[in-house]
Specification:
Mean pLDDT: 77
Strand content: 5-15%
Structural class: mainly alpha
Low-confidence stretches: 1-6, 236-255, 357-369, 458-481
Strand order of the largest sheet: 3-4-5
Radius of gyration: 28 Å
Shape: globular
Helix content: 40-55%
Length: 481
């Protein structure tokens, strides 16, 4: 397979790509400058509407009418509705007045607009008096990673700063769980289930595994169907009757094995459609209508169970901690749910961490083939390509220095990559090398380098101070921002 750099002279390709990347960087900076300027102008528009209401007896009404009028005026210039402009004015004031440090960091190109939106979104639960503390920690974390990567950590930090415990608020929210039907167009509707996150994640993961199992068997089934049809054409197939006729539905209304193979072989549904069809089948019939992995009457799809990956601080396990727990790749879950999940597992994985950095350095296990894999899952947490958040349990373990080229199977030469980025490493000009501490240094085809640090551990250990604590360590459950 030829890469772009092999299709044209390498020097010309690299030079062209470098110019494109540089131009994109320049344009991004210009866009950011314009977005920040527009944000400040819209915030001033909101402030003007508030000034109009000062001294008025019906201040709320006057302010609302003034804001509507200004929004309509600005909407004429922006060619959008006054409602949209009014919403954007409110958002602008929230950022400019409520998160000035984040706006300043964006203006200085330390973070991006996406980071600012994540900070504002996750910081909504933080009391106003604690917001500067949250904002400073959030900016520091955002400077090190992409918006989708930092969201989960910022959500946990914000929840810890909330005056009420996450567990208490989760219990109230769980009491409002429900299923809603939203009629749509063209004979379609949305079935929306509001459930505890860990339940929703488990449902989605099981549907995904079942859909992938169905799709992965298509090639094999298609080959089987093609072989059978070829045999039938010469009148010698198991389903032939001497004149090329094929088998038909069985007398009891079911379809024979040959017809089932044909149905599977012609199945062209993408994974989203398969997932939706399996979802409907499970709820209405208790089993998938089309199980093309089926080899027994029970059906292998029914044996598939969901996988949920979480990181538990020690204080959560002993019952003293009520802080939210990180559901890898998603949003926080409450400590009580995490303890319930921990109590149902058959194998415990004890992690030893460096007392200073908090980095996981070893995992004890009785299962000899798996310790290295579990260590890497604990270290990497997700795909190690810059910006990717696919959980490690859904990734492949890659030899940073290819095994075929002499790379050894050892911790300092292994890292998790999702299928997309694993393939990209193999078949494009992107290159990677692993530095000390599990740090990956990626080099793009244009020659730019991107440093991918190992994720922040969920539990950090720092040396205790004082004359009586020479050989002791203090534990903190908060991620070190």
């Amino acid at each position: 397979m030829n890469t772009p750099s092999e299709q044209v002279p390498r020097d010309a390709y690299s030079a062209s790509l470098a110019r494109i990347v540089a131009d994109v960087e320049t344009v991004e900076r210009q866009i950011a400058t314009g977005q920040i300027a527009q944000l400040r102008v819209l915030a001033r528009a909101g402030q003007l509407a508030e000034e109009q209401a000062v001294g008025s007896g019906s201040r709320v009404r006057v302010h609302d009418m003034a804001l509507r009028s200004i929004a309509a005026e600005v909407g004429g210039i922006m060619r959008t509705t006054d409602r949209t402009v009014q919403r954007r004015i409110d958002e602008a004031r929230t950022i400019v007045e409520g998160y000035p440090a984040a706006l300043g960091a964006w203006e200085a190109a330390r973070i991006t607009r996406g980071h600012v939106l994540v900070i504002v979104d996750t910081g909504g639960v933080v009391p106003v008096e604690l917001r500067p503390e949250f904002e400073a920690a959030a900016i520091s974390r955002c400077e090190q990673d992409t918006p989708n990567r930092v969201r989960a950590e910022l959500e946990i930090l914000a929840q810890r700063l909330h005056p009420r415990s996450f567990t208490e608020r989760h219990e109230e929210a769980a009491a409002k769980r429900c299923v809603r039907l939203m009629p749509g167009r063209d004979g379609m509707s949305d079935l929306i289930a509001t459930l505890p996150t860990v339940i929703a994640e488990g449902i989605h993961d099981r549907l995904t595994q079942q859909a992938r199992a169905i799709i992965d068997t298509r090639t094999e089934r298609a080959a089987t169907a093609a072989d059978r049809r070829a045999t039938e054409r010469v009148g010698t197939g198991a389903f032939g009757n001497g004149d090329g006729a094929t088998g038909s539905a069985l007398g009891d209304g079911t379809t024979n094995a040959a017809d089932a193979v044909d149905v599977v072989a012609t199945d062209k549904r993408p994974i989203d459609q398969v997932r939706a069809d399996v979802f409907a089948d499970l709820l209405l019939a208790g089993t998938p209508a089309l199980d093309d992995t089926i080899d027994t009457s029970a059906g292998p799809l029914g044996a598939i169970r969901a996988r949920v990956q979480i990181v538990l601080p020690a204080s959560c396990l002993d019952g003293t901690g009520q802080a939210p727990v990180d559901l890898m790749g998603r949003s926080p879950i409450d400590a009580a749910t995490a303890r319930t999940l921990a109590g149902s597992v058959g194998i415990w994985e004890r992690m030893f961490t460096d007392p200073v950095t908090g980095t996981t350095v070893a995992v004890d296990s009785y299962r000899v083939p798996l310790p290295m894999r579990r260590y890497l899952q604990a270290r990497d947490q997700h795909c190690r390509f810059p910006g990717c958040r696919v959980p490690a349990i859904r990734c492949e373990i890659d030899h940073t220095h290819d095994h075929a080229l002499g790379g050894r199977t050892e911790l300092r030469n292994l890292a998790h990559l999702c299928q997309r980025h694993h393939s990209m490493k193999q078949f494009t000009a992107w290159r990677v090398r692993q530095l000390q501490g599990g740090v990956l240094e990626w080099t793009s085809p244009a020659g730019r380098t991107y440093r991918e640090d190992a994720p922040t551990p969920a539990v950090a250990f720092t040396p205790a101070t004082g004359p009586d604590n020479t050989n002791r360590t203090n534990r903190t459950d908060a991620p070190p921002f």
